[in-house]
Amino acid sequence: MVRYSLLRILIFFGVMSALWLLGLRDRDQQILLLVLSALISMAISVFALRRFREDYSQQLAERLERRAQAKQQRGDADEQAEDAEDESRDSGPVEYR
Description:
Largest sheet: none
Oligomer: single chain
Structural class: mainly alpha
């Protein structure tokens, strides 16, 4: 994800530099420069960085799947331990005090 973020920032500054070279240099054009840079870099990032987004989302899905499996295994072990404890209590006579 860090790589994707850095590439987005580089694209933003590249677009901003290009727009600055094209003439958006005046003080009253700074907001226009920032807004256009953000919009254009966003459009470029959607297409140019698709592979990085897909790779990251796949890594995230795998991590969530491993976490869900680990939680399932922990839950199964807890249930088995509780069942064993219940069986050991049920095998002897019940004492009431």
